[in-house]
Design a protein that fits this description.
With about 240 residues, the protein is of the alpha/beta class. It has one domain: Vaccinia Virus protein VP39 (Rossmann fold, 3-Layer(aba) Sandwich). About 40% of the residues lie in helices and about 20% in strands. It is built from ten helices and nine strands. The strands form two sheets. Strands 3-2-1-4-5-9-8 form a seven-stranded mixed beta sheet, with helices on both faces. The radius of gyration is 17 Å and the shape is globular. The chain starts with a helix and ends with a strand.
């Protein structure tokens, strides 16, 4: 079971017509419905790609730069915040799903906040952190694009943004290699998961454009891979805010 499998389109049929806002809302609704099985899957380490490489990859990417403070944007049930805290890093998390924030708060004393990407974009959620992390939490279109536009202005000079997401080559499957909405799937997960959310596929060039076009300078791209097959399991972007005068 991999992170890619939960988002892999079931077939090559066109995605049903819907607005970006409607699809972004469907993503939130799906995660709300699946908060409990997702928490179980994470805490029982049921996702093979995370066990093999991607969990350690995001921890290494953060700790390599010894940040003063970290905000995990789309923190889910809080595993990464807890992992950073035990390593002596001041970390907190924010997520739009009440059930996931509740799970995070029950698991530890760290600070967790309930807020959506729109709340961040519109200044309704204020944060103080020199490093922002989005770990497999950017699956929409307009919501992600407006979030990126805001983060470049909200982070301090030389602040960092670290994003781990599905590797475009691995996630594309047999479909055309171009940006677009895809049909979601919980293939590889247990039967407790229902109503898979749609997700917006981005090419590598599209991801790079999000960073560069919103005031970030990409400093490194990492490609965590399966140690047995050497096939990519994810892609990890490390960027800094360009100096503002």
């Amino acid at each position: 079971m991999t992170d890619q499998s939960k988002r892999q389109a079931a077939n090559d049929e066109p995605f049903p017509a819907a607005t970006d806002r409607a699809n972004d809302q469907r993503i939130l609704e799906s995660w709300a419905k699946n908060a409990t099985p997702w928490t179980t899957a994470i805490r029982e380490q049921q996702i093979a790609s995370r066990r093999l490489a991607t969990d350690q990859a995001i921890i290494d990417a953060i700790t390599d730069f010894a940040p003063g403070s970290v905000l995990d944007v789309g923190c889910g049930e809080g595993w990464l915040v807890r992992a950073l805290t035990v390593r002596g890093i001041l970390a907190s998390g924010v997520d739009a799903i009440p059930a996931l924030i509740a799970q995070a708060r029950r698991a530890g004393p760290e600070a967790y906040y309930l807020a959506s990407y729109q709340d961040i974009t519109h200044g309704q959620f204020r944060f103080q952190a020199d490093t922002l992390v989005c770990n497999f939490s950017l699956f929409g279109k307009s919501s992600v694009e407006t979030l990126f536009a805001a983060l470049g202005t909200l982070l301090p000079n030389s602040g960092q943004l670290i994003v781990q997401t599905l590797h475009p080559l691995a996630a594309c499957g047999d479909q055309p290699y171009r940006d677009g909405w895809r049909i979601g799937s919980w293939q590889g997960f247990n039967r407790d998961f229902i109503d898979p959310p749609p997700w917006y596929f981005r090419t590598l060039a599209s991801w790079v454009g999000l960073f560069v076009g919103n005031g970030f300078e990409l400093t490194e791209i990492r490609e965590p891979s399966n140690p047995d097959t050497n096939q990519p399991l994810s892609i990890l972007f490390i960027a800094t805010v360009k100096l503002r005068t």
